[in-house]
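Box 3.1 A note on notation
Throughout this textbook, protein chains are presented in two layers. The first layer is the amino acid sequence; the second is a token string describing backbone geometry. Keep the layers aligned when reading.
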Amino acid sequence: MLALKRGTIADLLVLLAVWAGLVLLFGEFSTGFLSPATLGSVANRIPALLLVATGMTLLMVTGGIDLSVGSVLGFCGTVVGVTMVDWGWSLPVAIVASIAVGLALGATNGVVSVKLRLPSFIVTLGMLEIARGLAFLAAHSRTKYIGDAVEGIGTPIAGLVVSPAFLCAVVAVVLGQGLLSLTVLGRQLVAVGANIEAARISGIAVDRPRIAAHALLGALTGLAAVFNCSRLGSADPNAGVGFELSVIAAVVVGGTSLLGGRGSVAKSFLGVLIVATLEAGLVQMGASEPLKRVVTGIVIVVAVLADTWRRRE
């Protein structure tokens, strides 16, 4: 156990060093990148990514994956826009509605993939299309402008450079790591991902934690949609296109295995910081969107190769 703790601390230090190196690198080649305003801007852009990466970590620990999170984010954001703009609901009620819709879609992914014994990437690939279509249908293919009613969540707190959304996302990271490390459900998630047959023989009802991981990811994506709306001041049915790539990149960079059985929400948090800093630094240096996508893809491949190498040790 002591060796495991030392290994985890070593991994965290390596990830922290990589992030610090990126900050210093972009600070050297990009004017103003090291300013509090720029770093605060980076922090306030990642709450949605942090929330979904937390849920994705818990799911990937089981050996599953969800490719639909970008589309679910877009649909849940549309739910926020429609309920507030068209129906006149208050923000708290719209938040509950968004989380409930995300929870329902995530649970659907879990039930279909687990009970029908289908690969989760196939099921969630189908949900990717379904949720995106629902987003356009619900919004009639139009952006819903919400404005001040939601922007306060993503606005920096007076005297600080970070927003309530960022602080909430950090709390979710802490709770997610606690769930994974300190609860029965967390141990079941790891056991199922490490060896599902051994977990079944040991008496674990293996379907429940897998479905629970899908459902929790969906709920966190619903909340992330609110944070995304707060940052933009609007709900766009196109929101979240390609978002799943950033989420998976951050989680894999954080050391969570694509094959299941190993993962850490705390390390995924650092993975999010690395990916977000990399994207922000490239933008600051004038990189195009296609180049950013190329770099994100390379990061995923390198992280997977590193994971494969660690498994062979």
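The two ends are 18 Å apart (CA to CA). The chain has a mean pLDDT of 91.
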